[in-house]
Specification:
By secondary structure, the protein is an alpha/beta fold. The chain has eleven helices and eight strands. The chain has one domain: Rossmann fold. It has an eight-stranded mixed sheet with strand order 3-2-1-4-5-6-7-8, sandwiched between helices. The termini are far apart. InterPro entries: NAD(P)-bd_dom_sf, SDR_fam.
Length: about 325
């Protein structure tokens, strides 16, 4: 009898899902960037633009007339993504450059070449990231989540911020996550050497993204360079490749998840929306202001993380 009830319940759920599929998809899709702003003459840099929401963001901004530079660890996949964008928009200005955020030498080499060859940067989208990977370290010995998701982008932004100030008005968009709500900055064990949980390490790095965006916005006040963080939503992408369980769950419940195009909407919104020209230090989701966890609003934590990040990267950023 109990087994029958379970089967009947599952059957009922499946029927409801089929009946209301269109409504479920519409709700799951979330907010849409409605701005028609053109970006002719503007230069955009997007990290991790060879796949997922990064690729969709690149496609949208290229279609608006921007020169889009796709910074990718895997250049071959980046070239494939660029080719698909140009196939869709023959006039698109897209180019691929190699960048490994898990290696500070690669980041510095990328920035050095970028500054030598590109004379303006109006939009920087710190999009690349890793999620729930096994315990590994970057080339410089940082735990992979905090190393790539936070420290890599911290260094990249530091190296390019001067150019952005000279190109102002300019915008920095930091892709974070709702997961920041479950994160804590473990200053006593930032690199998870004492204990490691891939989920918690990911959440810590996403909280670091929010804190970085808020502190950078504070430091860039009156420079005409704005900084905002975004939660793209729960997106059905290959970001879950390191977790078999999550991959299975995302496959089963794909109807309830955003497509990469839908997940890119808030990044695009923060990059182009006219009404955000002077908005900085905020967090967005579904193209609207979003809740930030208390630990993400702590000025003390943000400043402490900033100082430690500078120390780890051996840089001075006043």
């Amino acid at each position: 009898m109990f087994l029958f009830l379970i089967i009947a319940s599952l059957g009922l759920v499946m029927i409801l899902v089929v009946l209301f599929a269109s409504h479920i998809r519409q709700y799951a899709a979330g907010g849409v960037c409605k701005s028609t702003e053109r970006l002719d003459g503007k230069t955009v840099l997007i990290t991790g633009a060879n796949t997922g929401i990064g690729k969709e963001t690149a496609l949208d901004l290229a279609a608006r007339g921007a020169r889009v530079i796709m910074a990718c660890r895997d250049v071959e996949k980046g070239e494939e993504a660029a080719a698909s964008i140009q196939a869709a928009y023959p006039e698109a200005q897209v180019e691929v450059r190699e960048l490994d955020l898990a290696d500070t030498c690669s980041i510095r080499a990328f920035a050095q070449k970028f500054l030598r060859e590109v004379n303006q940067l109006h939009i920087l989208i710190n999009n690349a990231g890793v999620m729930m990977c096994p315990y590994t370290k970057t080339t410089d010995g940082f735990e992979m989540h905090i190393g790539v998701n936070h420290l890599g982008h911290f260094l990249l932004t530091y190296l390019l911020i001067g150019l952005m100030k000279r190109s102002a008005p300019a915008r920095v968009v930091v892709v974070s996550s709702l997961a920041h709500n479950f994160g804590w900055i473990r200053f006593h064990d930032l690199h998870s050497q004492g204990s490691y949980n891939s989920g918690l390490a990911y959440c810590q790095s996403k909280l670091a993204n929010v804190l970085f965006a808020r502190e950078l916005a504070r430091r860039l006040k009156d420079t005409n360079v704005t900084v905002n963080s975004v939660h793209p939503g729960t997106v059905n992408s290959d970001l879950t490749r390191h977790s078999t369980l999550m991959t299975i769950m995302f496959t089963v419940f794909s109807m309830f998840l955003k497509t990469p195009r839908e997940g890119a909407q808030t990044s695009i919104y923060c990059a182009v929306a006219e009404e955000l020209h002077s908005v900085s230090g905020k967090h967005f989701s579904d193209c609207a202001p979003a809740f930030v966890a208390p630990q993400g609003r702590s000025e003390e934590t943000a400043r402490r993380l900033w100082d430690i990040s500078c120390e780890l990267l051996a840089i001075e950023w006043d």
